[in-house]
Amino acid sequence: MEPRISVVVLNWNGKPFLQDCLSSILSQSYSHFEVILVDNGSVDHSAEYVKETFPGIKVIRNEKNLGFAAGNNRGIVAAKGDFVFILNNDTTLDKDCLLELMKAVEGKHKTGMVSPKMLYMDGRIDTLGLRIRRSGLAEDIKTEGKIPLCPCGGAAFYRKRMLEDIRLGKDHYDSDYFIYYEDVDLGLRARSRQWKSASAPKAIVHHHHGATMKMSDKSIYLGIRNRLWTIHKNYPLPALILYSPLIFGLQVAVFFKYLFKGKAGLVINAWQDAHKKRFVMKDKRRLIQRKRELTSRDFRRLLA
Predict the structure, then answer these.
(1) In terms of domains, do 166 and 273 share one?
(2) Which CATH number does the domain housing residue 141 bear?
(3) Which of 207, 232, 247 represents a domain boundary (last residue)?
(4) Tell me, what DSSP letter sits at residue 150?
(5) Backbone φ, ψ for residue 204 (5° rounding)
(6) What is the pTM of this model?
(7) What Rg do the C-alpha atoms of the chain give, in angstroms?
(8) pLDDT per residue over 220-263, tens digit each?
(9) In whole angstroms, what is the distance from residue 290 CA to residue 142 CA?
(10) 240: domain range?
């Protein structure tokens, strides 16, 4: 019998986290699943450790760090389940997590993605999913009862059929992003195709937030660049026109924020590099907008 859920754990030099993370997956009360570890060119012998300690787990080894997007894409392609659970390596699951995620999609064929409750290790809420403001700024939802735009990529439960429906060529996550905003981009593409998002607050994921990639100059740069690409690709033209003052205003605010921190060059580089791939992103925008089933007005209602 094929697994109903494929749990994809992306790893980059995260060996200290793997024992707790993988053990918590294998201890789930829901048993119809497979586990795929995608190792992104680690040099800490993570892949060897998993093969020796968890022989039932499939290991995919990348020769170099492909980033969050392309790395997870390899896991999604290999997944045999009807659902794919993208999971950071610095997480642990409560024993009923997979069961609660499945409850959120049972009998709901257009529910394509589910957000679990992610908690910091001290019990505070990390995220209940993501929302995006009209300016393009993505934020974690911290209050229960709100339907997220989409899950955070740190723990994202997707229907495999949805992932295939919204592909960009061979990509599920946009591999040009490397990391950051790829979850928002995927979520907007899915919602534009009228896939629904749900929340599963009883599906608990404990998270060492930022353990595998601390805030750095690179993360600032990627966040700014990828946000611009996400807006350009996904906003229908009426939304782009209507919200252009907010979008521009956010860019100005971001520039001055980092100017006062002595990092204005990062912002300028992000803008320049976003512009360099404008024709690539224009082609992706054309594909997304051609497949969009949601009206422009309904798309705007997705934004906070």
Answers:
(1) no
(2) 3.90.550.10
(3) 207
(4) B
(5) -100, 130
(6) 0.95
(7) 19
(8) 999 999 999 999 999 999 999 999 999 999 999 999 999 999 99
(9) 34
(10) 217-301
